Amino acid sequence: MDAISHVAGRAIPFGRKNVDTDVVIPAHWLKTITREGLGKGAFEAVKKEPGNVFTDPEYAGAPILIAGDNFGCGSSREHAAWALLDMGVSCVIAPSFSDIFSGNAFKNGILTVALPQEAIDRLMEVAREHPIDVDLETQSVTTPFQDRWTFEIDAFRKHCLLEGLDEIGLTMAQGDAISVYEAKAKADLPFLAKTPATAA
Amino acid sequence: MTKQPRTLYQKIWDAHVIDTRDDGTSLIYIDRHLVHEVTSPQAFESLRVAGRPVRRPDLTLAVPDHNLPTTARKDAAGHILPITDPESAQQLAALQKNAPEFGIRYIDSTDAEQGIVHVVGPEQGFSLPGATIVCGDSHTACHGGLGALAFGIGTSEVEHVLATQTLLLKRSKTMEVRVEGQLGAGVTSKDVVLHVIGVIGTAGGTGHVIEFCGNVFEEMTVEGRLTVCNMAIEGGARAGLIAPDETTFAYVKGRPYAPKGEDWDKALAWWRSLATDEGATFDKSVQIRAEDIQPTVTWGTSPEDTSAIGGSVPAPEDFADASKREAVKVSLDYMGLTPGTKLTDVEVQNVFIGSCTNSRIEDIRAAAEVLKGRHKADNVKWAIVVPGSGLVKAQAEAEGLDKIIIDAGLEWREPGCSACLAMNPDKVPAGERCASTSNRNFTGRQGPGSRTHLMSPAMAAAAAVTGKLTDVRELMG
Ligand code: SF4
């Protein structure tokens, strides 16, 4: 996982509320067996709307996406995070996110920043012509016009994102504790700790 | 020593904690992991790239279900038929290759035991009371019907479990949904859970694990309990639970992967200690009277959009909340429904009886009972019954249910997820309605533009017969 400490550049002023993961990446893209290439399918239906921000060359390759309330609701598909990464987005700013989406985003090294609606309104305005700057270290979002907002982030998540730490590697480092648990479970809960060697 | 009274959820949680960090995140041991073809390929790919093995292949079971066509899988000579959709074929082939490569038990698409993960797990005795169970599918909550703590996970978590047999989790809050009283005739477990979601809303259980309590669930069969817990996720909950009891133990006993001999005795003793203690408290509590529950259907595009079958399509103005009013407007427009229309006047062109919510033998029996000696209405163009597993299919055929279904003009298919999410060829055409026993009525869930009405198997069978949403009680007795 790539370390992430600072995301600066253009932001896609999408702003829509209750964007579910079906909108981010429609179900028929779920048939892939790799994480790559999903950017093509990202926001497929929105891209067909005239004047949409996703096909506007102004925002091509922008690393930040600005959305409305409850971003990433609906199906738990992680493909939504992969699709965003594949289109070059590494930070999403919205008033709120679905729990599952923010978890999936974090696991894939995407920073989710929750800011109040007033801040989103202002960012939408700025984003049309100017870059935005998101700094994880200081937990702040700034614009070239001296706007500045701070955001909250779980300390553990911040640490992992800054260091580019992979959760699986971290847990594997606790292998001994897992083995201790397994030994105890074998004695106390043998019926859960194993499955019959041969299914009769 | 006096112990703090604990809920069923707390007891299962406590038994699986390996370590807890200062911020309250715990490393939780996972007892059983079910794997299917859609959410696993990228997880296996990453393991391969990182050179990581699967820590406990023996606690993992892989079975394809989402993509499989439900038409015949072999030709008359017994040769396996190819999958025509190249993308589906590729996902299925990936699982077929990955499972043995990582030493995982694999049930193939043409094996007698193949079926929907959430039907296969309990049926094989792989899913057990008191166990932590995960799967990369949001309806994993289903296994909570056995008294297991079961929930859906994303692909990164699938990889995490494969590599470490653990997950990093924060403890959920607990919510009690108590239903007491006497259910009326024609009211099934599906009606109970649809009614519950209608009452609590799709966000009612957010951040919580729901325990379903009360005599209604105590008197329910295990299959009915699986249906109820399956849909806990539609009420926003992470998982649903029903305390394991003698009904559960009788169900589990003797199944292929169930504990045996001494292990069985130990298991029983522990399982009997799991029920929520007297005096334990829930963070939230909802009481519902069984007598208030009618055969229920959905009219909108959210599972909370429920109504008793005797009701009418609501108007946006019927809702106090402004954002809900807006949602109802959009939803009625999508569904092509006019406020005030009696639900029993709504015609359906398609019927789907299946999915991990309702494709077990009891569900097939309930549908067949309604279909017996009747025929589907002419306006119903497409009606399929998709058993949840090969074993359910064989049992139904042994009871002659397939014949009743076929004689009624419905199709009898091979097991799989099918029109629940329409990843395989089983889709509802755009603009058409489907009486469906699945769990989600979202926009486009059963195919682009499809209009879904959720209901019980008996109600779906009744709709097939009359060609309209129907109160099954009118066809009974
Ligand atoms: S039947 Fe539907 S809900 Fe159940 S596992 Fe398959 S796709 Fe998921």
Provide key terms for this protein.
heterodimer; A: 200 residues; alpha/beta; Aconitase, domain 4; 2 domains; 4-stranded antiparallel beta sheet; 4-stranded parallel beta sheet; 9 helices; 14% strand; B: 477 residues; Aconitase, domain 3; 5-stranded parallel beta sheet; 15 helices; 30% helix; 16% strand; binds iron/sulfur cluster; 4Fe-4S (chain B); amino-acid biosynthesis (chain B)
Polypeptide structure, described:
The complex is a heterodimer of chains A (200) and B (477). Chain A is of the alpha/beta class. Chain A is 34% helix and 14% strand. In chain A, the strands form two sheets. Chain A has a four-stranded antiparallel sheet. A four-stranded parallel sheet of chain A has the order 2-3-4-5. Chain B is of the alpha/beta class and 477 residues long. Chain B has two domains: 8-169, Aconitase, domain 3 (2-Layer Sandwich), CATH 3.30.499.10; 296-475, Aconitase, domain 3, CATH 3.30.499.10. In chain B, a hairpin with a 4-residue loop joins strand 1 and strand 2 (25-29). In chain B, helix 12 (361-371) packs parallel to helix 15. Chain B starts with 7 loop residues before the first helix and ends in an 11-residue tail after the last helix. The interface between A and B is large, with 45 and 62 residues. Iron/sulfur cluster (SF4) is lined by residues 65-66, 116-118, 137, 139, 355-356, 417, 420-421, 438-439 of chain B. Iron/sulfur cluster binds next to helix 4 of chain B.
